[in-house]
Amino acid sequence: MCKLGDNYKIPPQIIHRVDRIRRLVMQVLDKHKNEFTTDFTENKKILDQIAIIRSKGLKNEMAGFITKYIKLEAATKAQKQQREARAEAEREEQAEEIEETTAQVEQTSEQVEEENTSEIDSEQEEIVMESQAPESN
């Protein structure tokens, strides 16, 4: 009988093979990362110059892994820059909103202050007029 989970497991040989390729690629990238590009054939040529790889299949897998790694890294950088640009735009937008709100508050407070001063002035005039009016009693 076949278990359900057995069909979906990755054979250990493939995992070991990928780990070996990853390890070799990381060793190469540690020393020569800036020489590689996102072009597979160009990366194969660079691998020929840098290292002696006798197996054509291993060289192709390494070049493919390097290409995929460089592309992923470039995409990650682009996403990070987009996030930073969006965050900066949001910050600028919030700053503009704060400036607008501050200006509105200042304008409103000036209007209230003017209304209060005019009310106080009119009340003082009434008091002065009442005090100056001759008493008829």
Automatic annotation (TrEMBL):
UniProt-listed Pfam families: Ribosomal_S17e
One annotated Gene Ontology cellular component of this protein: ribosome
GO biological process, one term: translation
Organism: Candidatus Nitrosotenuis uzonensis
InterPro entries xref list: Ribosomal_eS17, Ribosomal_eS17_sf
Keywords: Ribonucleoprotein, Ribosomal protein
Compositionally biased region (Low complexity): 101-110
Compositionally biased region (Acidic residues): 90-100, 111-128
Recorded coiled-coil stretches: none
Gene3D superfamilies hit by this protein: Ribosomal protein S17e-like (1.10.60.20)
Entry's Gene Ontology molecular function annotations: structural constituent of ribosome
Family the UniProt entry places it in: Belongs to the eukaryotic ribosomal protein eS17 family.
Protein name: Small ribosomal subunit protein eS17
Renumbered residue ranges of the record's region Disordered: 78-137
